[in-house]
Amino acid sequence: MKSKFFKYEITDWESWSKVFCSIDEFASLIEEILRQERFVSSKIENCKPGTNGVFKVGEVIVKIFVPKQSGYDSYPDYKTELFALRRANNLDITAPKLLASGEIRDKYLFRYLLMEHIDGPTLGDIKESLSKKEKEVLGGKLKEIVSSWATTCEDFNRINVLNRTLSSSRWQGASKELLDYQKKIINELRNEELIYVHGDLTEDNIIVDDKKQIVILDFADSVRAPAVYEDMTIICDAFSFDGAFLKGYYGKFDDDYIVNRCITSLLSHEYGYLVIKNIFGDVKKVEDLKCNIRKKLIN
Q: How far is the C-alpha of 68 from the C-alpha of 4, rounded, in Å?
């Protein structure tokens, strides 16, 4: 099939990685998507790079998912983010409004989402400048948001997160003691209710506006999972082990509670071992990991 709007040849992941941020290559496709959805086109700008093509056009974010010719099937990602954004909007959670979704068949089948652009600094941009009281307040606001979506929902992407973690190649290299303890933790978590979790509440996915209100971004990693699965990125990344944030989010707690919560979330998460190595280094013993988490806690 001859390409009308997208001329670049996609043959594998390498070819996609060379083009997915290119405004020149995507301009005609973006303009056609906006025309079909009855949005006015204007200057196209790049957004933060990721896996898919993400561009800002006026006050609209255009997210174009990688086609299967790259060797990667992005359809589950598209379904996940579409479901999660619709759910967030229906629950009146402060998140980008979903404006349109669909697909356009050119030489390649491109699925897309159009979302409201949210402007403002991320939590990562400002958290070093916040007072303890401001951190506590923001921690409480994030807890309210998480509590509003942390309920049962349909099996929207059929991902078994616990089995995925146990079989993930990302845990290769972990010590036998860590892996044995992981199996114990995961077996215990199998008895817990599966609820909706965002899955990627990092400092970059939390916008804080000038009124100190929180807006959540990037729902692409949403899954059904035990509630503790949400905590890894919150504790280790968004809050960076800061006690003021943690107090706002968890209420009154002792260090043992946070240490156990953190280690459970790390061991149950597919990316947990990468986070462990990045923050704590080559930890082989469970007690050493607990000790290192405790040392990270900022009072």
A: 18
